[in-house]
Design goal:
This protein is of the alpha+beta class. The chain contains one helix and four strands. GO terms for molecular function: double-stranded DNA 3'-5' DNA exonuclease activity.
Length: about 80
């Protein structure tokens, strides 16, 4: 069965972040994440601050995924 099993919508670490920038599912034992990273323009400013914060959360979550021992695909628009 190749039906994806949704794991999460949204990047963990900021419950107030309602932007649809991260989707994660398992497909035949492979964790697949679809990302749409924030652009962050203009710099400096709140959008850039949000981008840096988002990257910190992403790096922390990605490290946990890689440490899980499962194959992982992190694909999308990295801006």
């Amino acid at each position: 069965d190749c039906e994806p099993l949704e794991i999460r919508r949204g990047l963990p670490g900021d419950p107030g972040d309602s932007n649809s920038r991260y989707l994660e599912a398992a497909v035949q034992g492979v964790i697949v994440a679809c990302l749409y990273l924030p652009n962050g323009n203009p710099q400096p400013g709140p959008k850039f601050d949000y981008k840096l914060s988002w990257f910190e959360r992403f790096i922390e979550h990605a490290a946990g995924l890689l440490a899980s021992g499962h194959p992982v695909v992190l694909a999308g628009d990295y801006n």
